[in-house]
Structure formats: C-alpha cells, structure tokens
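stage 2 :: seqdesign
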C-alpha cells in the first residue's frame, strides 16, 4: 500500500499529525481510486481531532494557502496540483424530517460508518507505527474486486439518513460499471420518497456525473428501475412503455432515448449535447396518436418538446441560460437533418437548416446520427448512408454560400439611409424578404444583389428613395 502514498505530501501530513498527537488517515475516493488505478487528484484526509488545525500546520510547512470552511469544520489546500481536504472524524445522527445531521466528533470507525459505500469507506493509516496500512472494516476491497456497491450499515439507515446516497449508488454503478447489491436496490425502492428532502441542485450534480459516464444508460436504467426517475424527471420516465393497437406497436421511447444518449456519449464529451439526447423525444407522450391506416404518429413532438425544455430546466433548478437555449434548439431541430434524407435534398432546404442551426450544426448532425436506431440492422445501415449524403451536401452548400454565420448583407441602417425612414416595421419586412431570397437561392449571398432586391421590395411596399441620395 505504501506505493500509493509515495507523494511526499503524505509524509508531511503524517509528521504534522504526530506533532499534534492525533491519528490521521487518507480516506474515501482517493483510496478507492488507487485500487482501481483511476487517476485521482482529490485527496480526503480525516483526523481524530481538528481538521482545520492540521490543515493550517501542513499549509505552513508547504507554504500553501489554506481555505477554511468554518461552518463545515473543513479546510482545503492545493499542493502540486492535488486538492487536499482536511476534516475531523465525525459521527452523525439524523432526524427524520431533515437532511441536516447532528454532528459530533468521532473516531475513525464512526467516520467510516457514516460513509456512503464500503468502497468509499477505505482508509490508509498515516501513523508512524503502521504507515500505509489499509483499514477496511466493511470488506470494501472485496467489493471493489467483485464490482459491488454496498452500504456499510443497513441500507435503510444509510439511505434514509442522506437520500442523495441512493442517486450516488447509481452514479457509481454507472461510472464504474459496478452492480448495486440486491438488498440495496430494494432499499432504494422503499426509500424513494425521501428524495423530496433533497435540493434539486444536489440531485443534478449526480445526474450530470451519470450522464458523463461512458455508458449513461446503465445509470439511467437504474434510476428508472428503482422508481427514482419518476420522482424528479417524470417526463423521461413516462417515455417507457409500448402501446399496441390493431396489432401495431410503436418503439419503446425510453430504451430508444437511452440508446441515443449512449450513442452520443460514444462520440462526444459535451454534457449539454448529452442532455439534449436525453430530452430529444420528451414531446412524444403528449403528441402520440393512433391514426387508422397509418399507425402511431408523434406529430410535432420536436416542436412541443422544445417548448417543454425551459419548464424542465426550471423544475430541476438548472439555470435558464444559453445552455438551456442550446438544448432547446437541438431538441427543436432534431428531426430536420433526417427529414432531408427522406425528402429530396434541395440546396434551399440545406441552406435553411444551416441558417437555423448556425454554429451548432455539427452537434445537431451528431445527435441526429445518434437518433438512428432500429432493431433492423439493414434499415440503420441504409439510413446512415443516406445521412452521409446530407452531410456532404451541407459542406458543399456552406462552402458556396457561407450561411452558417449568416449576416444579412442589408442592415437596418442601410434601409433607413436609402429610403430616409426611421425605425419601422418596413425594415423588418425588407430584411426578411432578402434573407428568404438568399436562403431560397433566388439571389446570391452578397451586398450588390441584396441591395437591388431592397430597392425593388421597398418600392413594392410604397417606400421612396430619399431625395439627397438620388443619383
Ligand atoms: P468523485 O470525487 O469521483 O465524485 P468521491 O468518492 O471522491 O468521488 P466525493 O463526493 O468527492 O466522492 O466524496 C468524497 C468521499 O466522501 C466519498 O468517497 C465518501 O466516502 C464520502 N461522501 C461523499 N458524499 C457522501 C454522502 N452523501 N454520504 C456519505 N459519504 C459521502
Ligand atoms: Mg472526490
């Protein structure tokens, strides 16, 4: 084990502990990740005494600034790219109506008991006499080897004390591709209503980690199977299920969505693109219809879905910022590229897509490609091939017409100057007309042709050229 502690900082912390005459340990994620050979730059130090005092002593020795969080009794310092957090060993007890524990000083054993999982309760000793010894009271290393998520105490106690641990269990299962032991799964199902006492922000922090794992469907399936998803994101939960009428079923939109998220995750690390994948079919349940002779339809689910996005962000207490707009835009446009495959790929349809997607066109294409799922392999293959044609066309049209960052060659000033008018609705009419003419390929995307069209359209709506401008 000593190998794990070869960084000199552990030696320094150990010596400071001796000077304070108190026992000090490395604990939690860092120890776990050492065994898993995962890269980890966050180190948690637990001390049977004051974490703040130890941090200050270490800070002095290594000449590093110490940030103290008095309210939490913790302190943190940076050392050569490592973030080291110090905390006193604690014992916690909880009241049933609050997540805020009553905290008292405790021993290492008590501190390990209040940790979420056996694999997160491992500690290395930093005492001189048994430096580097592993302290593993709950069989955490065995669980690491077997790939199991298990609580150190009775799962009902651990989960009800801090319900976030239910989502953390699923997050670790997704990140590490581990299994949650059956008694834990049962306990999570029993305790799911306890999610009510959690802030949405804490849930979303874990949700983002699930989405950022290599195969997010592992975590998303668990959230659904344990009935947690319906507690905080019922709109996704509702995608599950297949209805049949006249012998015709539709695809299960939940498993389809998960497949799309996994497909996106395999190609991109963009968290918000993964959110867009998760939410892309959110409009389906409310637009579903069975139409005789046609089958199941979900008309306008793209449009309805996009409209639902701000409400979902709000419900999850996620900021209504440009990330939300990005997700909304991708959800709203997610059918457009594939529609081009099915229809005839005209230049003007491609121009319009480029105009609407702007700089997000590549992400949209990635999402749309990921959206091609079917049990029928040859169908997928055919769709993908056709999709390549759309990609090609996009490149050609963009090279020729530069629509991606479209700027109307005719500005409001130009219109006002030429016709000698002030701000008015005529300006928007003219500019819109020019934009559409360019997108439809009636004129080229340049100033001179646009200027001529401005004169023509202006005359048509009764504007006259300003006197002093007359040639
Ligand atoms: P990562 O840093 O990759 O998210 P981690 O295991 O280090 O994983 P942190 O959230 O940094 O997770 O927490 C550090 C340690 O603190 C954990 O390993 C665990 O021992 C403990 N811990 C964190 N959150 C909780 C919680 N809600 N309940 C109990 N113990 C927790
Ligand atoms: Mg950590």
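stage 2 :: out
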């Amino acid at each position: 084990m000593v190998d794990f502690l070869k960084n000199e900082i552990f030696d320094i912390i150990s010596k400071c502990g001796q000077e304070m005459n108190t026992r000090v340990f490395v604990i939690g994620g860092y120890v776990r990740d050492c065994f898993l050979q995962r890269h980890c730059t966050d180190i948690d130090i637990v001390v049977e005494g004051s974490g703040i005092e130890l941090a200050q002593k270490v800070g002095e020795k290594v000449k590093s600034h110490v940030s103290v969080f008095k309210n939490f009794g913790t302190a943190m310092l940076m050392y050569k790219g490592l973030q080291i957090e110090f905390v006193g060993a604690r014992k916690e007890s909880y009241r049933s109506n609050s997540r805020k524990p009553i905290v008292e000083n405790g021993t290492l054993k008590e501190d390990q008991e209040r940790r979420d999982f056996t694999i997160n309760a491992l500690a290395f000793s930093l005492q001189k006499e048994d430096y580097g010894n592993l302290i593993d009271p709950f069989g955490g290393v065995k669980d690491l080897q077997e790939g199991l998520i298990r609580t150190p105490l009775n799962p009902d106690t651990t989960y009800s004390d801090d319900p976030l641990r239910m989502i953390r269990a699923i997050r670790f299962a997704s990140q590490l591709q581990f299994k949650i032991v059956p008694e834990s799964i049962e306990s999570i199902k029993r305790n799911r209503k306890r999610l009510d006492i959690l802030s949405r922000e804490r849930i979303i922090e874990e949700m983002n980690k699930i989405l950022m794992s290599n195969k997010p469907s592992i975590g998303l399936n668990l959230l659904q199977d344990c009935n947690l998803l319906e507690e905080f994101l019922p709109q996704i939960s509702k995608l599950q299920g297949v209805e049949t009428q006249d012998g015709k079923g539709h695809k299960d939109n939940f498993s389809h969505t998960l497949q799309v998220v996994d497909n996106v995750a395999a190609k991109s690390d963009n968290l918000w693109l993964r959110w867009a994948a998760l939410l892309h079919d959110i409009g389906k349940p409310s637009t579903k219809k069975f139409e005789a002779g046609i089958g199941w339809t979900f008309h306008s689910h793209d449009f309805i879905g996009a409209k639902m996005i701000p409400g979902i962000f709000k419900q999850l207490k996620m900021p209504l910022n440009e990330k939300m707009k990005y997700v909304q835009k991708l959800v709203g446009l997610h059918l457009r590229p594939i529609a081009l495959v099915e229809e005839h790929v005209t230049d003007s349809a491609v121009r319009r897509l480029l105009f609407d997607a702007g700089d997000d066109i590549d992400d949209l294409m990635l999402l749309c490609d990921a959206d091609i799922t079917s049990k029928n392999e040859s169908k997928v293959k055919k769709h993908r091939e056709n999709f390549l044609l759309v990609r090609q066309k996009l490149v050609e049209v963009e090279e020729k017409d530069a629509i991606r960052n479209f700027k109307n060659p005719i500005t409001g000033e130009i219109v006002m100057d030429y016709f000698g008018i002030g701000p008015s609705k005529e300006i928007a009419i003219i500019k819109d007309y020019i934009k559409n003419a360019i997108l439809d390929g009636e004129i080229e995307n340049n100033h001179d042709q646009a200027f001529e069209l401005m004169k023509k359209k202006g005359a048509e709506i009764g504007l006259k050229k300003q006197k002093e401008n007359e040639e």
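stage 3 :: structure notes
- The first strand starts at residue 24 and ends at 27.
- The radius of gyration is 30 Å.
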